[in-house]
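Subject: Predicted fold for Epoxide hydrolase-like protein, 284 residues

User T.R. writes:
Posting the sequence so we have a shared reference for the thread.
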Amino acid sequence: MMAPTKPPKAILFDIGGVVVVSPFQAILDYELANAIPPGWINFSIQKGPHDTGAWQLIERGECILDDTWFSKFKSQLEMRNHWTEFWAREVAKGTLKGDARFPPAMPSIEAKKLFWNMMNMSREPDPYMYPALKKLRLDGRFVLGALSNTVAFPPGIVDHDGVVFSHALVHPPPPHPHAADSTNTQDLFDTFISSAHVGLRKPDPRVYELAVRELDRVAREKGLGRVEKGDVLFLDDIGVNLKWARKSGLRTIKVDLGRSRDAVRELEEETGLKLLEGEGRAKL
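User M.O. replies:
I've generated the structure tokens; pasting them so everyone works from the same file.
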């Protein structure tokens, strides 16, 4: 990647798959454990439909997380036309063997178990990005924001095992250097934009506009000057979210599953700061 002409003024982070361990890992683990073609669950979630898909509705805060929603989520994960499209696509790519015209029986998904596996896995800080974020916060030269597609959890809600769910971060025990850190993800940022609370989710261009306005407001309050869209560097693990961020004028870094160290190296290049322990300082 070519070094930018100037460092960003603000850095915007997705949460799941960037700052914390990716829920996509929980999805992949579920698929492999249940002989489901890898990629099917993500495909069915992304297909929506955008206006009425259960996943899209919950991330915009337009419904309540309850058994009715889990039933709708299961239906979204078992839509015959989506399965037919996915099967034909994967056979054409050569990742699955069979007749593209005749998909096998569609997998049955334990929607509640899958969901809570995703949520519980996403409580663990990423081993590379989380320490880098802490260093950026201590440095103080950047406005730090979060832009996350989220779920609003009703108080006292229990997971599929009947355990009351907590979305607090899970840090290693002492003497680990992060052991005493706050368990509230929002404490890492100057501003935190949650899709379920603002009614907009990525990749809607309006949510990027909102994020830039919030980062600009914080920058001016902190005496750091103005922040415009070209001053914002956005990290996410989903391609379509990055695509629309770029169309909105933001700079971007892709955080691939299992390759957050590589993304931190790119972040070093963008900021000119050493963010990985034990490795050479980034060049300004």
